[in-house]
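Hi R.,

Here's the chain you asked about this morning:
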Amino acid sequence: MAALTAQVSGRAGVLLARESLYPAVIAYYLAHEIGHLALGHVTEDTPCLVDLDDSLELGAEADAEERSADAFALELLTGSPEPTVTTENETFSAASLANTALKAGSELQIEPGTLALCYGHATKDWARAMASLAFVYSNPAKVGPEINKVAEQALLWDALPDESEAFLRAVMVA
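And here is the predicted structure, written out as C-alpha cells:
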C-alpha cells in the first residue's frame, strides 16, 4: 500500500505508507492524496480510498481518478498540472539533472527535488530522476518521522476513541 485516504463524518485523513529519504517524494504522495479529497474521490459512499500502486510511476496504466489526482498534485507543487520538462540531450547524468533542478528551482521558486521528479514523470526516466535526488539533497534522511511529529502535535488525541488512538499510535511508529 502506498497511501490511504479516508473521510468519516466530514473529517478527512491521509495515511502515507511509503517512506523516502527525499522530501519531494513524500510531498508528491501527500499532494496526490489531498487531490483525491479535493476532487471528491472520497465521499460518504466511498469513504476510503487505498492507493496500492506507486502513483509516481503509474502513468498510462492509471485510471481517470488517479490521473486527475496526479494533475492536482503536480499543479499544487509546481503551478502546472502538466509541467513542461525539456532536455538538451539524452546523455546527461543524474548529477547534471540535479544541478539543473537546483538552479531552476531557485529561479522558478519550485522545490528542486520536485522538478527532478517532474522530469521522471514527463519522460518515464525514473532511474535518472530518482538517482538525481541523491545530489539534490545533501543529507538524506527518512521523512516519515518528521511528518509524524507534525501529526502528533496536530491530532486531537482526546477526541479519538481509544481503539482509533491505539491504531494511529501503532502505525505512526517510525
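One quick note: The beta strands are 3-8, 11-16, 48-51.

Cheers,
M.
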